[in-house]
Amino acid sequence: MRRLASGALTGILALGALTACAEEPESGTSEGGGKSGKVAFLMPDLASPRYEQFDAPLFKKRMAKLCSDCGVIYQNADSDASLQQQQANSAIAQGAKVIVLDPVDSAAAATIVQTAQSQGVKVIAYDRPIPKKPADFYVSFDNEAIGESIAQSLVDHLKETKAKGGVLLVNGSPTDAAAGLIKKGIHNAVDDSGYDLLAEYDTPDWSPEKAQQWVSGQIAQYRGKIAGVVAANDGTGGGAIAAFKAADGKVPPVTGNDAELAAIQRVIAGDQYNTISKPIRIVAKAAADAAYKLMQGEKPKAETELFDTPSQLFKPTVVTQKNIKKVVFGPDAVFKTEDVCTKKYAADCQRLGIK
User: Fold this and answer.
1) Domains in the chain with CATH codes
2) Residue pair 276/154 in contact by the 8 Å Cβ criterion
3) Residue 157: Cβ within 10 Å count
4) What is the pLDDT of residues 291-326, one digit of tens each?
5) How far apart, in Å, are the Cα atoms of 184 and each of 148, 170, 200, 272, 352?
6) What does each C-alpha distance from 321 to 79, 261, 325 come to in angstroms?
7) What pLDDT does residue 12 have?
8) What's the Rg (C-alpha) of the chain?
9) 160 pLDDT exceeds 80?
10) CA distance 167 to 288
11) DSSP-derived 3-state class of residue 158
12) Are 178 and 128 in contact (CB under 8 A)?
């Protein structure tokens, strides 16, 4: 299935590149009076549905509002660092003036930054930092704070319920610098929590399947001793939950991050203890604003610096059953209630006052 999906994606990306060459504008002046041109928006994988469903559409929408004459070249590398390098080279060849890059491999992405900057193309690191070669700007939620928040939330819950046992850590991809920051934050909360760290795993490509396989092995080794699982995102959290359900159906508190639709439903049902609300519209808008400023020869406003890169980091919000109605279904809701509270989850939604 993955090979088929990759093949289909390659075809779509190739068609997108041809369309960009044929229809997107050359550098010039936008209707608003500023300089116009092409911006590349290069995302890392299909394992997280957010990129196709939210990041890309929201970024395009904001760029269109800022500059109706600007073109967006969107590509997804499907967890292939070499493909992402090719996509970046293609975007440069097509005349992109700015590349917004969420890297598959944070170390390998240094080459993309070097190549782009050597040709006068600005680079914005998006969501994941690029430690070895400073980009021109970095936009993200605070990943270390994300890790600490989800882990501390879990630890507090375990203490409140007087849970016995230790915890498993299901970290993100070892090639993702953001995963490293999340991992650091998790350890900030877990190491001195009083709960033993039974084992931890760096999940290749953030793969839910690999997370599930690893957790299955830990369940067999630590049967009856696992009080909770700190999973670095909703995909790995979902994999952990699937492993427990396949074992004996008893699922301990499991964390997540990204507030994906499936994760929100799991939180509502009580299968997943928490997730992180990171309104993607915030980072997508900030990235578009920064790209437009760089296109004008201006410097985006930075609030801090990370890896020698001017950065804008936003604060995350932990979501549990206690605040899910307010956070997820408030005025700026991304998901419609009817999409979340399907027949399977209707009773749980009603119990939590979600209508």
Assistant:
1) 2-135+279-314 (3.40.50.2300), 143-278 (3.40.50.2300)
2) no
3) 17
4) 999 999 999 999 999 999 999 999 989 999 999 999
5) 8, 13, 13, 22, 33
6) 32, 14, 8
7) 40
8) 21
9) yes
10) 39
11) helix
12) yes
